Amino acid sequence: MSSAKLSAAEIEERLQSLPDWGLDQHKLFRHFVFENFVDAFGFMAQVALLAETLNHHPEWSNVYNRVEIYLTSHDVDGISERDFTLARRIDSLL
Fold it and tell me: pLDDT confidence of 2, banded at 50, 70, 90?
């Protein structure tokens, strides 16, 4: 999987296939709302296992039933294909 930093045009093109994701603070971003804390925490546990298999970990936060995920590739100081791969796999958990 490529670890090169994507251009703004490449990012916009890839975002077309991830309509629930956007850009915030130069990172891929998605806000999730679940029924309750247990569902939100269970989702985070699934994402953690997934991220570990990809060796690519999100920046995230959780407050009760809400989870916010930011994806960026620190080694390229921007967004790479790895971020989009993880975003698609996160979406597949829902």
Answer: low
